[in-house]
Structure formats: structure tokens, C-alpha cells
């Protein structure tokens, strides 16, 4: 799953660059000590188990970055149904995302991906963990 970037950094979010980024990112996730077990339990242990999820993520990021409308899912429900997720896991997810975007994209594009990911992560984190009257730590913005 981990596709090595051939040394060229993508300057625009097209179908090919989205696929490369998503594959690279999830290659990091599946091997991560914190996030890997959550994802492998939800998706599968073997690479071939991940093809449906990866295709969904290609459509998702195409919709986010290209306004393609290809993604038709419900990310809130999908994430709320996961077991074993804790609020601080979002920080790790974003750290891996930041690494992957930096390794696959030119800085301007990487920062756009990073900010969109933070907005998405904040929404998911709030949906999963927010409780009125309890402290809630939103995810920080991408540093300028």
C-alpha cells in the first residue's frame, strides 16, 4: 500500500495525486502503533481488504478538493460506529496526514489539505466526543 513518492511533489489535487496521497497516508496508518489496530480491526488485516476503503477515500478527497461530488457516504456515522477511538487519536491522525501531505505535495497544496483535514477532524471529534458542560479541546489550525 505504501507507494513511495518518486521525488516529485504534486502541485495540484487531481485524481492521480489524490490517489498517491491517500495510498501513502494509509500506508502510514496501517503500520502505526496507535491507529493501525483501530483501522485494521475496522477494515481488515490484509492489503486486499483495504481496496474498498481506499476507493471511498479517493472519492471523499476528490469531493473535498475538487468539489467533484463523487463521495456519497456518511463519515459521521462511519466514525461514530468505531470502537476504541479516543479524542487524542485525532492528533495522531493529523500528524500522519501532515507527514504524508509534506512528502507528496508542494507546500501550498499540503497546507490546503492540512486545513481541510483539521476542519473534518474537528467535526468528527465533536460528533464523537463533545458533551455539553464538559471541556472540549478543538484541533489547532495549520500554522501560518
What does this 3D model show about the protein?
The structure is a single chain. The chain is an all-alpha fold and 144 residues long. It is 60% helix and 0% strand. It has 6 helices and no strands. Helix 1 (15-31) packs across helix 2 and helix 1 (15-31) crosses helix 3 (51-66). The longest helix has 23 residues, at 107-129. The protein starts with 14 loop residues before the first helix and ends in a 15-residue tail after the last helix. The relative contact order is 0.15.
Q: What distance lies between the first and last C-alpha atoms, to the nearest angstrom?
A: 31 Å
Structural class: mainly alpha
Q: Write down how many β-strands occur, each being a DSSP E stretch of 2 or more residues.
A: 0
Major sheet characteristics:
none
Regarding quaternary structure, what we see is: single chain
Quote the beta fraction: under 5%
In helices, the fraction of residues equals 55-70%
Low-confidence stretches: 1-6
**Discrete helix count:** 6
The string of secondary-structure elements, in order, is HHHHHH
Mean of residue pLDDT values: 86
Radius of gyration: 15 Å
Report a brief summary of the structure.
The chain is mainly alpha-helical and 144 residues long. The protein has helices at residues 15-31, 36-43, 51-66, 75-80, 89-104, 107-129.
Amino acid at each position: 500500500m505504501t507507494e513511495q513518492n518518486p521525488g516529485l511533489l504534486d502541485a495540484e489535487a487531481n485524481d492521480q495525486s489524490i490517489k498517491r496521497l491517500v495510498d501513502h497516508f494509509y500506508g502510514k496508518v496501517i503500520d502505526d502503533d496507535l491507529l493501525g489496530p483501530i483501522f485494521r480491526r475496522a477494515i481488515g488485516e490484509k492489503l486486499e481488504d483495504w481496496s474498498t476503503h481506499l476507493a471511498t477515500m479517493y472519492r471523499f478527497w476528490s469531493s473535498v478538493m475538487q468539489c467533484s461530488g463523487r463521495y456519497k457516504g456518511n463519515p459521521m456515522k462511519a466514525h461514530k460506529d468505531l470502537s476504541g477511538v479516543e479524542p487524542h487519536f485525532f492528533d495522531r491522525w493529523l500528524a500522519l496526514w501532515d507527514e504524508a501531505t509534506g512528502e507528496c505535495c508542494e507546500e501550498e497544496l499540503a497546507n490546503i489539505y492540512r486545513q481541510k483535514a483539521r476542519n473534518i477532524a474537528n467535526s468528527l471529534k465533536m460528533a464523537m466526543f463533545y458533551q455539553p458542560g464538559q471541556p472540549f479541546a478543538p484541533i489547532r489550525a495549520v500554522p501560518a
